[in-house]
Amino acid sequence: MNRKRKSGMERKMERQYFLIVLPGFVIFTIGLIIPTILAFRYSLTSWDGLSAEKPFVGFQNYVNLLHDSNFLQAWGFTILFTIGNTVIQNVCALLFAVALDSGIRLQKVYRTIFFIPCLISSVIVGFIWLKMYSNVLPEFNEIFGTNINFLLFGSSSTVLPGLLIANNWQWIGYWMLIYLAGLQSIPAELYEAAKVDGAGAFSRFKNITLPMLAPSITICVVGITTGSLKVYDLLVSSTGGGPGRASTSVILHTYNTAISGRQYGYGSAMSVSLVIVLLLVALIQVKSLRSREVQQ
């Protein structure tokens, strides 16, 4: 009798769990799984996005991608942008987190100041820094009599540093909070024992802080990398992919090809290739970083 009641209660709980998960699963399927399948299907055609006919071309679109100089240039910019963001944001976020965790005054005020930019839309951030570079910062040249080039978005040689400044200004505070949460979860006894053994500040940071922050490092590295590979809205509102094509990312080039250029099938092949790269990069990073967590 008890077994029957128990099995009945288990079935009831399973139905409840299923009902709880169902809305999220439906949204995930409609918003991601189905579009991904359709994108792969269209990538095998030369569809223009409007006509009823969708001529099948097989994997020719993917072959063409390997010889598309504009697509390869977009990948070049995206990779450089991703590397710059991943290095700068991780280093600066960790340093700021360590500084705020050191017991300085007004910690909550500084946390708020650092975090506020990430609450702003990336489109607005692009407009802000466009005005900063073109109108606000050049005023300092007149005030101090200097001749510094603040028009970073106006040259192909300076547009990448200009975008890195804007993007890092927006997101460093977000990743700083993740590192700060990791720092505050480290037992104080470890640092006290290290001090008793005569370990200096750098030694404690190297042998205690970094190993204990391994899970936070994994989250930040993977999050920053995948987010940077998908950069789009910041570019649309600031540089528009220019000057020329110097700041055209993969997603922006895909949009221009599929929508503006009416090459929906070819653009779908670009989007599928980006999804594959994102998955591979995320899997490699998670596997390598998690292995370090196990070792430590």
General description of the model:
The chain has 296 residues and is mainly α. It folds into two domains: 1-43; 61-295, MetI-like (MetI-like fold), CATH 1.10.3720. Helix content is 75%, strand content 0%. It contains 13 helices and no strands. It has helices at 2-43, 60-65, 69-100, 107-115, 122-136, 138-144, 159-184, 188-196, 201-212, 214-229, 233-238, 250-260, 264-295. Helix 1 crosses helix 13 (264-295). The longest helix has 42 residues, at 2-43. The chain is globular. It starts with a helix and ends with a helix. The model has no long low-confidence stretch (mean pLDDT 91).
Characteristics of this structure?
75% helix, mainly alpha, MetI-like fold, single chain, 2 domains, 296 residues
The top-level CATH class of the largest domain is Mainly Alpha
Q: Indicate the CATH topology of the largest domain.
A: MetI-like fold
The percent range for strand residues is: under 5%
**What's the helical proportion of residues?**
over 70%
Instruction: Round the Cα radius of gyration to an integer and report it.
Output: 25 Å
Q: What structural class results from the helix and strand content?
A: mainly alpha
What is the count of helical runs? 13
Give the number of DSSP strands.
0
Assembly type of the chains comes to single chain
CATH architecture designation of the largest domain: Orthogonal Bundle
Order of helices and strands: HHHHHHHHHHHHH
Number of domains: 2
Averaged pLDDT? 91
